[in-house]
Amino acid sequence: MLNDRVQGDVVRGRLAPSPTGALHLGNARSFLLAWLSVRSRGGTLVLRVEDLDHPKVKAWAMDQALDDLRWLGLDWDEGPDVGGSHGPYLQGKRMVRYRQALDRLIEKDAVYPCICSRKDVENAQSAPHADDEGLKYPGFCRESGLSYEEAAGRLEAPRVPAWRFRTHAGEVTEYKDGFHGIQRVCVQEQDGDFVVARHREGAGYMLAVVVDDAAMQVNEVLRGDDLLPATHRQILLYRALGLTPPAFTHVPLVVGENGWRLAKRHGDTRLSMLREKGVDPRKVLGLLAWWCGWVPYGTEISAQELVPRYDLSAVPKEPVVLTQDVKIYLGIA
């Protein structure tokens, strides 16, 4: 079944690294917050590897991510290395569930095949956008009436049709975010019909995380606030599939001094590099905790010692800036 959500007051959270590259300090802060939120209440943590972005997946990245998290002192109760009753814990091995969910959406006419390219969508915009998140789909394929096979016949390999979710005028999603408070959006006005899968078998981030969080009984999701817009789309998918959404909390990101999210341009902030240099993980955790407003600068502390200090209300409302002084402190300047 898709909907086997846990009942009662048991907190089940998740860590969901994607093996498309190395974890950095920004990832570490979000994972630490998610881990502490669950551990501070005696809950259960699931680790799920989100490996569906096939062209970008790196063969070494999953093992490295798990090693990085263990180095920080973060553990989990279910996952690819420890097992559990809700596996498999790699999305690449859960394709049957995604196909079942997609079939349910197709039966309800909640999705339709789309042959539009990113360029097609870009050209229809009234203003330029930096990435797909800012693009509103103009609905070119919404009423085409094409079957998936007919749509596929209009594309040259290796392109295949995407599946788009039908949004509706006036349909509003509203929830209380654990950090940002009440969030209210009409997805059709903001995004238009959105892609749920770019794979024949229904495998795509938007659909997969909904299906997996429900099947793994996850009732709390804490992640970076760059995913705030995606949350409203996911809530529509929960509704369409008859599933109960988890409680959502979105925390500010760690950014460089130019205001952009951490990337190679900000120097080597990889956790694996810090491990290789012999940096004490307590020093890194102290920095992450300082960024959260829990300890003075320069504190060295373990993850377990942070459990009683966890206080989401102390976390700054603005993005954290990785300054040159911090790089020098960690030896990565």
Can you describe this structure in just a few lines?
Helices cover 32% and strands 14% of the residues. It has 12 helices and 11 strands.
Please give a handful of descriptors for the protein shown.
single chain, 333 residues, alpha/beta, Rossmann fold, Glutamyl-tRNA Synthetase, domain 3, two-stranded parallel ribbon, disordered N terminus
Q: What share of the residues does DSSP label as strand, in percent?
A: 5-15%
- Give start-end ranges of low-pLDDT stretches: 1-7, 128-132
> Which class of the largest domain in CATH terms?
Alpha Beta
Tell me what the CATH architecture of the largest domain is. 3-Layer(aba) Sandwich
What's the overall geometry?
A: globular
Order of helices and strands: EHEHHEHHEEEHEHEHEEHHHEH
CATH topology of the largest domain: Rossmann fold
Biggest beta sheet summary: 3 strands, antiparallel
- Helicity range: 25-40%
Going by CATH, the homologous superfamily of the largest domain would be HUPs
Derived structural class: alpha/beta
**How many β-strands, per DSSP?**
11
Global Rg: 21 Å
Number of helices: 12
Q: If strands are numbered along the chain, what order do they take across the biggest sheet?
A: 3-4-7
Compute the separation of the termini in Å: 50 Å
